[in-house]
Structures are given as structure tokens and as C-alpha cells.
Amino acid sequence: MLIKASDKTTPKSYELTSESDYWSRRAWLKAAGYFGAGLAAAVSLPVVGAPASPETWQAMLKQKLADSVAWAGSSRDKPTPYEDIIQYNNFYEFGTGKDDPARLSKSFKVDPWRVQVAGEVAKPGNFTLEDILKPHALEDRIYRFRCVEAWSMVVPWVGFPLADLLRRFEPTSSAKYVRFETLVDPDRFPAQRFGRSTISWPYVEGLRMDEAMHPLTLMVVGVYGKTLLPQNGAPLRLMVPWKYGFKSIKSIVKIEFTSTAPKTTWQQLASSEYGFYANVNPEVDHPRWSQKRERRLPNSLWDPNWVPTQKFNGYEEQVAALYDKMNLRTHF
Ligand SMILES: Nc1nc2c(c(=O)[nH]1)N[C@H]1C(S)=C(S)[C@@H](COP(=O)(O)O)O[C@H]1N2
Ligand SMILES: [Mo]
């Protein structure tokens, strides 16, 4: 993607609050087996909200990856090789080159990590990765994945339905949209260092509530049965298979339920080129290129491997009803 607008915003540093609410405290105590034991007062509890030991969420994730089940709806297209999925990336926090994310994320440390849940919900809070992962069984889902730049892959993701996570926070009736933010940390993301990017961080994406709750919308924690690598958006990234890739925000640290549509990063940069919906649609071209076909990876300059682009990236049957009376040309 080409960035047209430019701005000189200084990166904001993301602050992890050590504050914790009743719900996450309860979840932690439950996980630790303290409920009903009558021992809680007698043992010395770790400070709730202190960084969880990395082994713990990593061990939990490993076990869940081992127990994951194949999803019946997987694409029959041939999966893109793992090497391509982890080496050809868009992740502008590392840089705009396709090889920047793999190259510059080698020493990326996920910990410490918290996910803040805020806005129109009964149960907001700051959650550890263990809190987030604990109740969810994982599924292996092979999805087609189409970037707005007209290349595509077929990726065996591992994750769980976003809807199952969102329900835990009990969104109120005012929650009409979900807004997501990526981590801001110039120590971990080189392109967030002062003056190195025209993007105003954090990277922000959003979905309408019904899109977020759709059974195809996945919270991803793995690829090809392995723990998600930083270049693919570790530890948590979204996957909305019927939308252009930029909707599938990586390395999520905030989930906010809102009553109005959030302003997303690409809309802010070039609203005439990147819309809020960003549904894959071969009938609506990007102002600067055709969306009728896509280069399916792996490919080369000599063999671009063009394939026709499908409406809603081939998921029309499952998602068309979400956009029933909408003009997809104006709501691009
Ligand atoms: N935070 C963040 N999320 C992001 C991006 C980004 O630059 N920053 N790029 C998006 C784009 S344009 C695409 S195509 C996909 C790429 O995902 P992949 O590298 O895992 O294939 O991530 C999306 N999510
Ligand atoms: Mo993209």
C-alpha cells in the first residue's frame, strides 16, 4: 500500500496498568484453584496484574495447539508453504518492506502483554494472555487470505471464534462496533521510533458488531499448528477472511466496544482508497489498480500465478446477508 498522507505525530507510549478489576481477579483465582479451597487468605497470592510467567501462557498455548481440531469448513485450495507465510508480510510497525517484519522481529519479546477491554461492556478489564486463552478450544482453519494489494495466500490458521471471546465481556446494547488497537512500543517496533513512519500509531481497526460476532471471524494464535510468530502478529491477531488483509489487525492490546464507527488507520491515511468495510470485491476496483484478480503465493515475477478474485473472497454464501441492502460501491 502506498501512503499518501503524511503526519508527524510522535509515537505515544502504551502504558500497561497494573490495576485489575474484580473479574480478572476472580478468573485468576479460579485458574489457580483457589475458589472453594478456603485457603486464599492463608497463602501469599502473587499480585494480580503482575506479569504472568511466560512459560505459563506458552505452555497453555502449546497444549491447546496440540489439542486443536480440524474445522470442517476449511478451504480446499492448496495451502501456501509455511516459509512464504512467515517471510512475506505486511506489518508496518516493523517497516514497509515485505521482508522487514521477519528480519526485524527476530528478537521480539511478547512478554509482558496485556489486553485491555473497554467501552460498552459489563466486564471491562486488563487481561493476561492466560486469562484470554484459558476457556477456548482451538481450531485449525484453512482460509483464503486476500491483501488489498492484489496478492493472496491460503493459510492454515489456528484460533478460536472472536465471538466466544467477546461474549465473555458482556457487551451492552450500546455496543455497535468493536475497535482494536495494536501495541505501541518503539523498543519492540522499530518503525514506531520517532520520525520513521507516516502512520500515526497505534494501528487501529474495527468491525461492526455483527461482523465481529460472525462465526468466520477468528482470533488467531497460531499458523500451521505452531505458535504465531511476531511477523504474523503474535500473540493475538484477527482474521476476517472475507475482507482485505488490512482489516486483520495484528498484535492486539486493546479491544473497545463503541456505539459509533471507529476511525481506522487506513481510512485516516487515504479514505478514498481504503474504506471501513473493505470487503473483498472483484467488481469494485481500487482507484489505482484492478481487484479482479490476485497473485496467489507462492509465485515469481516470471510466474505471477494470477487467479480470479472471488466476491467476499469466496465466503459470499456465509456473509452476504450482513450487507443485504448496502451499496457495496459506496460502502467499500
Ligand atoms: N498492526 C498491524 N496489523 C496489520 C498490518 C500492519 O501493518 N500493522 N498489515 C495488515 C495487512 S495490509 C495485511 S495484508 C496483513 C498481513 O498479514 P500477514 O503478514 O500475517 O500475512 O496484516 C494486516 N494487519
Ligand atoms: Mo494488506
TrEMBL record:
Residues 109-266 form the Oxidoreductase molybdopterin-binding domain. GO terms for molecular function: metal ion binding; molybdopterin cofactor binding; oxidoreductase activity, acting on a sulfur group of donors, quinone or similar compound as acceptor. InterPro entries: MsrP, OxRdtase_Mopterin-bd_dom, OxRdtase_Mopterin-bd_sf, TAT_signal. Mo-molybdopterin binds at residues 89, 92-93, 147, 182, 232, 237, 248-250. Keywords: Metal-binding, Molybdenum, Oxidoreductase, Signal. GO terms for biological process: protein repair. This is Protein-methionine-sulfoxide reductase catalytic subunit MsrP. Belongs to the MsrP family. Part of the MsrPQ system that repairs oxidized periplasmic proteins containing methionine sulfoxide residues (Met-O), using respiratory chain electrons. Thus protects these proteins from oxidative-stress damage caused by reactive species of oxygen and chlorine generated by the host defense mechanisms. MsrPQ is essential for the maintenance of envelope integrity under bleach stress, rescuing a wide series of structurally unrelated periplasmic proteins from methionine oxidation. Heterodimer of a catalytic subunit (MsrP) and a heme-binding subunit (MsrQ). It comes from the Bacteria. It is an enzyme of class 1 (oxidoreductase). Predicted to be exported by the Tat system. The position of the signal peptide cleavage has not been experimentally proven. Binds 1 Mo-molybdopterin (Mo-MPT) cofactor per subunit. Its cofactor is Mo-molybdopterin. It catalyses: L-methionyl-[protein] + a quinone + H2O = L-methionyl-(R)-S-oxide-[protein] + a quinol; L-methionyl-[protein] + a quinone + H2O = L-methionyl-(S)-S-oxide-[protein] + a quinol.
